[in-house]
Specification:
Layout: E1 3-6, H1 12-23, E2 27-32, H2 36-48, E3 52-57, H3 63-74, E4 81-84, H4 99-127, E5 130-135, H5 139-142, H6 148-168, E6 173-180, H7 186-191, H8 194-200, H9 209-219, E7 231-234
Parallel strand pairs: 1-2, 1-4, 2-3, 4-5, 5-6, 6-7
Helix pairs in contact: 1-2, 1-9, 3-4, 4-6
Length: about 240
């Protein structure tokens, strides 16, 4: 059974991705940082539905903590599907953005990508099959007011993923990015009214976590072996 790690797996989109991968027959490691209880619940739901799952908790921005946790996971074998979903918001206009707001968002999203992906690469490459999928945002494609830190971090994922895809394409490992638009999560519900969504999104609705998970599930499958180095938007026609 192939193993998958979903960082930020305790949140709405991460949980949907974890459940989708489990339905595809993968053993899923559901990651959390502070919200271990939510990750445990996702894993329990997967097992109750007949799937296979476990949880792990660490701060992806902490290099030492990440290395220690991943070393433990690798004792049971390689991770062949990695979904880099962990990320945070700390929104403010750049003129009023604190150093802490800038650094924390970049640390979690971009440095977290390195801290998690790099240690898993060689074990994955030795199997000559793997899928690395990072969850970005429409903000990383077109920018967004008040989110210079978030947009910069997500755009950095695009460049890192395209470069990594070139480095390892010949080894049977694909690297892609999924960039959602407005998705029905508690954060989006607070930020956008129904009227705003209808104005911003050509299809006149927000997307769902399950729709994002379906795209990730396809990219993680054997059928997607010829897709690599791509940023795939899922945003209802916003861009």
């Amino acid at each position: 059974m192939k193993r998958a790690l979903v960082t930020g797996g305790s949140g709405g989109i991460g949980a949907a991705i974890a459940r989708r991968l489990a339905r595809e027959g993968l053993h899923v490691v559901v990651h959390a940082h502070r919200n271990r209880d939510a990750a445990d619940q996702v894993a329990e739901d997967i097992v109750n539905d007949g799937g296979s799952a476990e949880t792990v908790a660490f701060d992806v921005a902490d290099a030492a903590a990440s290395a220690q946790a991943l070393e433990g996971l690798l004792e049971s074998g390689p991770i062949q599907v990695l979904v880099n979903n962990a990320g945070i918001h700390a929104d403010a206009p750049l003129a009023g953005m604190s150093p802490e707001q800038w650094h924390r968002v970049v640390d979690v999203t971009l440095h977290g990508f390195y801290h998690v992906t790099q240690p898993l690469l060689l074990p994955m490459l030795r199997t000559r099959w793997g899928r690395i999928i990072s969850i970005s945002s429409i903000a990383g494609v077109i920018g967004n007011r008040g989110q210079a830190n978030y947009a910069a971090a997500k755009a950095g994922l695009h460049g890192a993923s395209k470069s990594l895809a070139l480095e390892i394409a010949s080894r049977g490992v694909t690297v892609n990015v999924v960039a959602p638009g407005i998705i029905t999560t508690p954060m989006a519900e607070q930020a956008f009214s129904k009227e705003q969504i209808e104005q911003l999104v050509p299809v006149k609705r927000a997307g769902t976590p399950d729709e994002v998970a379906s795209l990730v599930g396809y990219l993680a499958s054997p059928d997607a072996g010829y897709i690599t180095g791509q940023v795939l938007s899922i945003n209802g026609g916003m861009a």
